[in-house]
Amino acid sequence: MPTRDIRCPACRRPLPEDPATLNSLNRCPACNAPLTIATFPGFRRVPVAGRAAERITGEGEAACFFHATRKAAVPCDDCGRFLCALCDIPVDGRHLCPTCIDTAHKTGTVRGLERSRTRWDAMVWYANLGLFTGIGIPFVTLFNILVTIFRWRAADSRVANVRRRMILGTLVSVLACAGLATLIVVAFIL
Amino acid sequence: MSDLLHQNPAYRKLRASLIPLVGSSSYWLAEDHLLVVDVLGVLERYRKFQLEDIEHIVIRPNRLRLILGLILGILLVPFLGMAIGFWIAGLTATDGGGEPWIFAAIFVTTIATILFPILAFVLIGGTMCEVRMTTAVQEIRLPGLYRLPKARALVQELQSATQRLTPTTTATTPVP
Question: What is the 3-state secondary structure of chain A?
Fold first, then answer.
């Protein structure tokens, strides 16, 4: 079984390596800090070495685009370059080369590599805090309308209906703006 | 095209937490991985962990509840005292001199009314904690898991999910 370096988060002293002992711990044996540890099957897993890229042994064998002496294993599903086992990066069932991975990171074209999204609805609602300033209401409303129009297609989330929230936020600012305009008109009339 | 997780049958929502005006966190369990969605301000971040890669989770209870409770309590007590005093002074004042006391009473009562639910939320939710997860390649602090009972429930669900994984995907070696 591989050894794991588990340390107490409070005193940083090593904890027992046996999963059964770890799971039954309520306190750190060294500093007595309360803690609960849950081990998972990955705790006992033996690290597996990655595939080695094979050397080209004879004439007529395709070489890796990035390593001329290594045998090509698969073509990149994006750019078509031949890749050895070392350069082949499987993502979402596809084989990609490091260059395409870099490009995908920048362009966000591969869903499995996506790390973050901008929440334009949150931008609208944060801007709505400016409604409390009173005088800033028209600027907030203009900002929200522009964000809703120009970021409509870019607005997306995996946990919330962003477009509905954007419309709602913009509607609130428009109503506040209409209310402010009504107040000003009434004040002038009176 | 919408790819909302709660409309995706491959994902099951395990836990979600919200801090108003700051952000939210949610945990989504798929067949072979855990997806942590962390919203902070205007940025929604995704972190995907293969269940087979999770090595251990450490839950460490801390004294944040005690500290927050003390701070809020110390703030709340004088405001409550002032509110009671101002109301009594305002309501018992004669010849119309109670009006300033009433206004002061309304002000401090409003502050006390804001502080009290926050204090109640801090005290009722249970012991606060910090949760750290270690995988084959990294150790991270799990966001949004501030309460011990919720953290334990999430860990239990994760453990049962990893137990359901087939031996071919867990690739574990028998314990000697």
Answer: CCCCCCECCCCCCECCCCHHHHHHCCECCCCCCECEEEECHHHCCCCCCCCCCCECCCCCCCECCCCCCEECCEECCCCCCEECCCCCEEECCEEECHHHHHHHHHHCCCHHHCCEEECHHHHHHHHHHHHHHCCCHHHHHHHHHHHHHHCCCCCCCCCCCHHHHHHHHHHHHHHHHHHHHHHHHHHHHC
**B42–A122: do the CB atoms touch at under 8 Å?**
yes
Residue B49: closest C-alpha in chain A: A42
Do residues A59 and A68 touch, judged by C-beta distance below 8 A? no
> The tokens of B130 are what?
């910090």
Question: Where do the domains of chain A lie?
Answer: 1-48, 51-115, 120-189
For A152-157, which contacts have Cβ atoms below 8 Å and span 24 or more sequence positions?
A154/A118, A154/A120, A155/A120, A155/A121, A156/A117, A156/B2, A156/B3, A157/A117, A157/A119, A157/A121, A157/B4, A157/B44
Residues 146-165 of B with CB under 8 A from A: 152, 155, 158-159, 162-163, 165
Put simply, whether B17 touches A (Cβ < 8 Å) is no
Which residues on A lie below 8 Å from B59 (Cβ)? Answer: 35-38
Mean pLDDT per block of 10 residues along chain B (176 residues) reads: 81 87 91 92 92 91 93 94 91 79 91 93 90 89 91 92 66 40
Q: CB-based contact (8 Å) between B173 and chain A? A: yes
CB spacing of A45 vs B135 below 8 angstroms? no
**Does the predicted interface ipTM exceed a cut of 0.90?**
no
Chain B CB within 8 Å of residue A1 CB: yes
